[in-house]
Amino acid sequence: MRCWLLATLLAGSALLALPAAALDVEKVVDRLREDPVLVEPESAVRIDEEAVRAAFQDLPVPTYALVVPQSEVDAEESGIDGALLRVVEALEDPRAVVVVVTDAGELQAGEGGASGVDASVLLDGIVQSRSEQEFNGQTLTDALLAFAAAVERHGDTGAERGIRGSNRQTVAVAGLVGIAVVAGGLLWARTQRRVSQQLPPAGDGSDSGAW
Question: pLDDT tens, 44-67?
């Protein structure tokens, strides 16, 4: 009996020691191409998906929201910035605007280089204006709707560029190179953008990434 109990404890310890799985970007992007708003089932925070989806679908440039467990982002080598970069690259659309959110309140936004908006700056302004609010599904929904409104105001440039053919590919490469160049800067900025905020009772009490 003791041997069986010891084996069970060891097996449980081994499972706990396994590193968390990083974001499955290929699977995520396949789903985002069908639906611009994706909240993974494992996420502890839920949003009004229908409201956000309706707002995103009316925008002049393709815009996506991805809500994932914090563990998936923590497993990324460069955190939420790395997750965002990989999703933007995989979408292969220079006009794409992407917001990545974790269920612990960490947010980041970026774009493919030809959207006509500075997605990270837009999101920063919205998050800062809501920094005194509790991070939960409703406040996150409101923030994403405000972000959609900001993209609508600034996205006409990307919509009017009419990227196609070889021009589209050239801009796509330029956009991805630009993202790669600033990725290191985003890692530093990530720590500067942290705003301490009390999580809902179900949270673990850790600081939010950008909320």
Answer: 999 999 999 999 999 999 999 999
